[in-house]
Amino acid sequence: MSNKENKIKVEIFGTSYILRGESDIEYMQELASYVDRKMREIQKETGIISPTKIAILSALNIADELCKTSPKKKESISVDTSLAKRAIELIDKIEKELR
């Protein structure tokens, strides 16, 4: 197995990122495309404008998908809706302070 580090430029939700890793480039592109699609779906469904909120809600949705498809992961990842609600409240407070 090669320890060669690959590098690729991807765009997720309108922002460019450089990804580096040992995974092949096609796989890294697929992951980035999946995250981009999830974020766009969340934005479309909720009407939320804040990229931070959209990213957090997308991450929660992806974590939920992971838990539902892998019983072993479900044991190690606890998705608590009250925690998600609290996270969104904290993001609101941070964004207000930054203005």
UniProtKB/TrEMBL annotation:
Protein keywords: Cell cycle, Cell division, Cytoplasm, Septation
BP terms from Gene Ontology: division septum assembly; FtsZ-dependent cytokinesis; septin ring assembly
Main location: cytoplasm
Subcellular location: Cytoplasm
GO CC aspect terms: cell division site; cell septum; cytosol
Pfam family, one: ZapA
Domain of life where this protein originates: Bacteria
Subunit structure comment from the entry: Homodimer. Interacts with FtsZ.
PANTHER family for the chain: CELL DIVISION PROTEIN ZAPA
Cited function: Activator of cell division through the inhibition of FtsZ GTPase activity, therefore promoting FtsZ assembly into bundles of protofilaments necessary for the formation of the division Z ring. It is recruited early at mid-cell but it is not essential for cell division.
Protein name: Cell division protein ZapA
Origin organism lineage: Bacteria, Candidatus Desantisiibacteriota
